[in-house]
Structure prediction request, 499 residues.
Amino acid sequence: MRELRVGDQVAISGTVWGLRDATLIHWQRQGFEFPVDMREAVVLHTQPNVRREGNRWLPVCVGTTTSQRMDRFTRPLLERYRIRAILGKGGLSPDSARAMAEHGSVYLAVIGGAASVETLQIEEIEAVYWEHLMPECLWCFRVRHLGPLFVAIDARGANLHQEVAAEAQRRLEGLTASAGGDRQTAAKAGARP
Amino acid sequence: MTTATHGRVPAVSDAFYEVLEETACQAYVMALKDIPPDVRRGLAHAVERESSERAVAVMRTMLEAIELGDRDMLVCQDTGIPIYWVRIGTAAFVDGDRIRQAIETGVRRATLETPFRSSIVHPVERVNRQDSTGEGIPVLHFDFEPGIGHLSLLMMPKGSGSENWSFLRMLVPADGDEAIRSFALQAVVEAGGRACPPLVVGIGLGGSSDQCVSLAKIATARPVGQRHPDPKVAAFEEALLEDINTLGIGPQGLGGDTTALDVHVERAWTHNSMNPVAVNMQCWRGERRRARIAYDDLSVDWGYWW
Prediction:
């Protein structure tokens, strides 16, 4: 984990725990206790489409959701369980990046919306906890070559989404400040909304 | 198939509502599996133009995901908030309440029979009926087409990733159209990678506040590459697209030249004291499906836009 650098492309095989909004709100209400040992786990921001067959759950479509909504739970998750990696999309805040640096964890960006690809990389749903939160339960997946994943926060706290966002903000200022000057793309060729 | 008459036009038969229910059901499932051809072309062109290797890798994975949809998989796990725009041809009498019921039943069936997850919850209690319906859901918009002998519906399963980045600003007339451009650019930057770019950016101009947001939403459903009929607006769309794609946000916010596949503007006239602008985002899949049911033989024609 500590050798990974922002921008690296990786894939994961093994156990990945799925959770998201309602799962983590419930976790908080339970005094930050999961029904299972989550020490050093890898988690994925997801709520899957599943179907029941006998007493098993089978994946129909498993994809990744926007991490920003769960950002506030990053630090508590890392502090309590020393979560090794969080898989999500869209990035996490500067504070979460600092928490990752403190705990030597990484944030891996999944290609959001490409859930069909991701689904085929799920070998099995091994367990489900908190089924009353369906579909926002705590899911235990066994995955094989889950990816491509891009390291978006590394164990030094470098944050790819933040770097891209800061650059976009800088370019936005250039685009809007120069509207009356050199660059008038929106005003050229008689363009008017 | 028409039976009784209502005023000067005949009424559709009961069988019409059965076909409508089935069509509403199929449209939902098809929208989740079959990504529109204009979106596929847009992504393929973007891959050719893109200078960032990482962005190319991301978009290739997206194209791979689309191909899996052609093999009957759901492309995204977010089956969305179901939205239907309905255009009722007025050449026959159609019962509006039965249209509503047929579509709602179609949504329920799509969810339970496929099956896929229901994402629809009570806004405070967060209770999920597990059938993608609830108070006010599916979202229905109605319009009419004078003298036309069919009903058209456009289905969009709107995912939260992009919908959570929706913007309205009641600008004032003195802000002019430069403020419209700036607001749209700011919205795209604020959304960043979280709205699942490359985006289709919908911009609503004018109207009342609710109408303005609604215009921004339907703007995202217009096919990628299709310009507004007013040449000035079309030029604005193209110029804004160029600007957005200089921001460097890229696919999934991981950097690159491809932040948007297209920008679409829809407008209404507004109050002389108002200058409302809304921005709505559609994620890279641009999911939607259109169906047209003929009143005479109940045949269904499928497409991706009106």
About this structure: The first strand of chain B starts at residue 2 and ends at 6. Chain B touches chain A through 68 residues (CB under 8 Å). Residues 14-33 of chain B form the longest helix (20 residues). The CA atoms of residues 165 and 191 of chain B lie 6 Å apart.
